[in-house]
Every structure is written in structure tokens, then in C-alpha cells.
Design brief:
- The protein is built from 15 helices and six strands.
- The chain is mostly helical and 371 residues long.
- The chain folds into three domains: 46 residues, no CATH class; 115 residues, DNA polymerase, domain 1, CATH 1.10.150; 176 residues, Orthogonal Bundle (hpI Integrase, Chain A).
- Helix 2 runs antiparallel to helix 3, helix 3 crosses helix 5 and helix 7 runs antiparallel to helix 8.
- It is elongated and about 90 Å long.
Amino acid sequence: MHKAAKPRKPSPDFPLFAHSNGSWAKKINQKLEYFGSWKQGTEADPDGSASALRQYKAVMAKRQMPVPVQAVTVGVALNAFLNAKKAACEAGKIAQRTYLEHQRTCSRFAKMVHRDTLVDALSPQIFAEFMADRAKTLNIVSVGNEVTRVKTAFKWCYENRVIEEPVYFGSEFRKPPRKAVRRHRRESGKKLFTAKDIWKLLDEAGLHLRAMILLGINCGYGPHDCATLPLNAVDLDAGWIDYPRPKTEVDRRCPLWPETIDAMSASAARRPRQIEGKPVFFVQHNGKPFSNESSDLSKYFGAVRRRVLPDGGMYWLRHTLETIGGGAKDQVALNQIMGHVDDTMAAVYREDIDAARLRAVTNHVRNWMLK
């Protein structure tokens, strides 16, 4: 005897599917439930779908659960996620850089699978193809970040009832193992500048970038830190900056070298009047802050670096400070300068770090620079 062919959904937004046992089915709260038979229809309802739908709606109403009125596309789902992240960004809960990273990843994924594809149609194979496509142009760490952002988006959609069922990504759609990351970093080489390299950069840099480079090696500031540094966080008279790290909101205090104070004073003297946004220390010639995404500063630094050095990004200054600063043998003080997250119980009880300890770390790095 031949098995009866399973019927198709009567419409794309029909919430049930034809199960091989002869019933219309739906997974609800991780449990498969059945609603009438598609094998035993009537003349008015040949495949039993109308009867099954009535049963399904009755069950959902009894449980006070919403019945989806239409199938959700990838575009609709990801737009809902991005709207929520944009609101979180505007409320100051996440950095603009984080929102823009989510936006770019969602845009790339939607473009590859097509925005009108139903979320229900996504399969582990599709996610594997996306990961393979990103691996053509990104290193394994960046691919892992893309994977995390895609998973975060669809998990948010499920938890916030944008989609009714969780998305199944497959076992291979995941961040690379730590062993592979360590191998990649070893093969990529050390991200360190020598003191001689940094002096070459300082000699080549313009007025404002010179101050930013010194903030990088003195305080561990990256492009985003420099772009968003509040004007009122800087006390050049006292020689201190007190500014939580935007990425983590961890308290961060740093004593400034005389060279950094001089460079920042020169930059402040040439600072144009800011015409929009919250007052920040570094302002472009047109009176606007640098992009919070910090791509402007990264490109600006890259153009200068290529004139004097073969490799290196602005973030290498942060790597260098962490590496050289470790020689001061006070990791707790170095962590506060860097703005590192400290999840130890000691950090819970530690209310402050003596200024002398912070100065000892920055002086150690300055002595390395001046040798």
C-alpha cells in the first residue's frame, strides 16, 4: 500500500504542518501537539485543515496565548530586533558601536537569505552557508562574532514573541573553539608597537591625532574612547582623566604624562566650537564630534601609520600598554587604567585604588617610552 501524500499548508500563514502520523501538528513550548487528522477530512474540509485550525485556536485561547496572524519573514524579525537595539542605544543601555555592529550583521544575513524568506524556512544549512561566506573575508574571531550576533537576534525574536518557535542553527553554527582562536592569534603575530614605532607615529601625526596616540599608550584609549571622551572628564590642570570605559562601563582613572598633557592642551587650544551633541574633547574641523563608530579615527590613524610603519592599528597601543604596563607588577592598578572587567570577589569589596599605584604603572610605561 502507498502512503498517503501529506497535504501542503492551505496558505503560507497557516500555523500548523502536516505530520507524518496523519495529524496536523504544531510545536508549542517545546512540545509537539496535534490538532485533528489530515487523512480523515470531509467534503467541505477535505484535508481537515479548517477543523484543525479551529481546535488550535481554541487551545491557544484557553491558554491565553496569541495566535500568529501571518508568517514572519527574516526582514520583519530582524527589523523588530534592530528597533529594540536602537531604542536601547538611545536610552544609553548599549553603545552606538554595538548597535551598528548588530545592524551590519543583520543586513548581511538578510541580504544573503533574502528578506522575504520565512523564518520557519531557515535551516542549519543556510546558517552554515552564511558562516562559510563570512569566512571568505573575515578571520575566525570576526566570524565568531558574526555568529554570536545572528544567534542573539533570533533568540531575542523568540523570547519576545516575534516568532513562535526557536530557530535551529545546527551544531556547527557556533564560535570557533578557544584552541583555534589561540592558534589564529599566534599565527597572526604580536600586536605590539616598540617605543621607537610610537615615536615615529607621534612625529608624523597632526596636532589632534598626536594627543590621541599619547592617550592610547598612556591610558589605553582606543578610537571609540577618543571619539566619545567627554570634555568634563578631562582635568589637564590636575593631570587626570576619570572616564568609565564606554564598552563595559567599568570605572577607569588614569594619570596623564607631561607629554600627554602638553599634547592635549595644544589640541584643546585649536578645538573648534562644537555645534551638535554632548560636549566632547575632540571635535572635527566642521564642529561635529567624531563618529561614535570611530571609523573616522581608525582611517585617520591608518593613513598616518602607513607612511611610517608596515603594520599596526590604533588598538595596538592598548595591547602595548597592557603588555609593558604588566612590568610594574600591579595588575589591579593596570586593570583600572585599562577599564578591564574584574569579576573577582575582591573587586566587589574594593572601593578605590590609591593614586600612587596608578602613577607607578603609567610611569613605568613612560620610562620604557623615554629609554
